[in-house]
Design a protein that fits this description.
With 358 residues, this protein is of the alpha+beta class. Strand 5 and strand 6 form a beta hairpin. It is built from 12 helices and 8 strands. The radius of gyration is 33 Å and the shape is elongated. Helix 4 runs parallel beside helix 8, helix 8 crosses helix 10 and helix 10 packs parallel to helix 11. The chain starts with a helix and ends with a helix.
Length: 358
């Protein structure tokens, strides 16, 4: 036994030291995930611009009079790499903003940040960037500040919508699985089907089919259905539903095989037909376990739908994958929090339901 685990340790290349050596690499990611984007405040924005010409013309300093917000440049024209001073006047006091260089084809490039003083003024030296293209250029100052009360963020609203989609995606997949798995489970029960040659053949065909289907991961099924029916929750329903048929079919048939044979033998002894034996001798014994397993499968499908979404199967997983790819880890943290809350809620709910029906 020790040699077995020793070989397994070697094959899996376990190196506990890596957990500590590179922990600093994952720390920023964990911090952002732990700060989900839940609440936000309305933002107001102030944008002020000044024109600049990319040429060697004589420079005439700008002069500003009045109380309106304005940007004043120390020179109105110049070449790439020239240095000029930008002054902001009458802007929002005590706020931070960003300076941008906008070239003639409306490409925007950040030049740095600035902070206004109590009178709404600032001064910053900048260099004409190599990205300057065309004759007419623009220096743009953007100030943003929070205003108004707190409200649910756009990320939270979008996450809520996708979590609702995820729950119902799992519900429809589970329903599909139950409707098909119930009749298949009777055909895949050894104690009911192996009493004749034809029944034995049907039993082995059904059980083999369920085992083969169960061996295919839902992620692979989701990829196939995304190609078949397109990206969206329908592909997720089909993938999870097909896998639920295989899993529930096996579990249901095992419940049937563990029933008390007394009622079945009694009904058979009085001349009941096979269909009557199933309805009056088998079904009453397995109905409650079937309900408990169905609710448990719904709980499983909610969790699995997260991964299904990564390949285009709809639900919260599709949204989570986009946020991770865009390095929006605060938004991803919101999705993870929502998944955890829903999974915990459904786990508690399904546990109570199973406790009552068993």
């Amino acid at each position: 036994m020790l040699s077995l685990y020793s070989y397994g340790w070697k094959v899996t290349e376990i190196d506990l030291g890596e957990l500590f050596r590179d922990f600093h690499l994952v720390t920023p990611l964990v911090k952002e995930l732990a700060q989900p984007d839940l609440l936000t405040r309305e933002k107001e924005t102030q944008i002020v611009e000044a024109g600049f010409f990319l040429s060697q013309k004589t420079n005439i300093p700008q002069v500003h009079e009045g109380t309106n917000p304005a940007l004043v440049l120390s020179r109105q024209s110049g070449e790439i790499s020239d240095t000029l001073t930008v002054r902001g006047l009458n802007m929002k006091p005590e706020e931070s903003g960003t300076l941008y260089w906008v070239n003639a084809i409306e490409q925007e490039f950040p030049l740095g940040t600035f902070s206004t003083d109590s009178s709404g003024a600032f001064q910053k030296d900048i260099t004409v960037p190599p990205s300057a293209r065309g004759l007419r250029q623009t220096v743009r100052a953007v100030l943003s500040w929070e205003a108004g009360g707190w409200k649910a963020s756009e990320t939270l609203s979008l996450t809520f919508d996708k979590m609702v989609e995820t729950v119902f995606l799992a519900l429809m997949a589970t329903t599909l699985g139950v409707l098909v798995a119930v009749p298949l489970s009777f055909l895949g029960a050894r104690n009911l089907m192996t009493k004749s040659r034809v029944g034995t053949i049907i039993y082995y065909v059904v059980r083999t089919g369920l085992n083969v289907l169960r061996s295919i991961e839902p992620l692979i099924l989701a990829i196939l259905f995304v190609v078949w029916v397109g990206i969206g929750p329908f592909a997720g329903v089909l993938a999870l539903g097909l896998h639920s048929i295989a899993s529930l079919g096996k579990l249901f048939s095992e419940q049937i095989e563990s029933i008390d044979q007394g009622p079945v033998e009694a009904i058979t002894a009085v001349g009941a037909k096979p269909v009557q034996v199933v309805f009056f001798g088998v079904l009453p014994q397995v109905l409650l376990p079937f309900l408990a397993l169905s609710f448990y499968r719904w709980d499983i499908n909610v969790r699995m739908s997260t991964i299904i979404g990564f390949v285009g199967g709809g639900g919260i997983g599709f949204l989570l994958q986009q946020w991770i790819n865009l390095l929006k880890y605060n938004e991803a943290g919101t999705a993870l929090l929502a998944i955890a809350i829903v999974v915990i809620t459904l786990d508690i709910l399904s546990a109570k339901i199973r406790e009552r029906v068993q």
